[in-house]
Amino acid sequence: MAVKNFLDKFKQKEAPKDIESAGKYIDLGEMTFADAPENITNAKLAVRVAEVQKFEDLGDLSVHVYNGNIMILDITPVLDDELALRRIVAELKQVAKDINGDLAGIDKHLLMLTPTGVKIDRHVLKATVL
């Protein structure tokens, strides 16, 4: 009985007015924009996202950085293989050095590799309260 009374405190009796007026949630995956490009081939700079399955994937993925694009690399599939992970990170560091780009970890399983002239700021910006 005590647990039920405790849980009842967290139940919301009525939905907030702003949610009721919206009628439903917006699925961002279904949204389309009239001015969105159909492809990125005409862009001067693109941000590409890729998953690294093995060391051999780097040859195909590095081409995008050499062509001036930013790569966000998901290294989740190789996190358990320490040797492969070290080889991949060493190769990516060398690519960044070769093209005067940059390489930084975004998260435990994400790396960002940038092309020539693009550096990654390692300081986290925090919003200031006005």
What does this structure look like?
- The chain is 30% helix and 16% strand.
- The protein contains 4 helices and 4 strands.
- The radius of gyration is 22 Å and the shape is globular.
- The chain is α+β, with helices and mostly antiparallel strands and 130 residues long.
Please describe the structure with a list of short key phrases separated by commas or semicolons.
130 residues; alpha+beta; Translation Initiation Factor IF3; 4-stranded mixed β-sheet; 4 strands; globular
* Average pLDDT score: 81
Which regions have little confidence, pLDDT < 50, spanning 5+ residues? none
The number of helical segments is: 4
Percent helix: 25-40%
Q: Give the CATH superfamily of the domain at 45-114.
A: SepF-like protein
The biggest sheet, with number of strands, parallel, antiparallel or mixed sense and barrel status, is: 4 strands, mixed
3D shape: globular
CATH topology of the domain at 45-114: Translation Initiation Factor IF3
Separation of the first and last Cα atoms? 46 Å
CATH architecture of the domain at 45-114: 2-Layer Sandwich
Strand order of the largest sheet: 1-2-4-3
How many DSSP E strands? 4
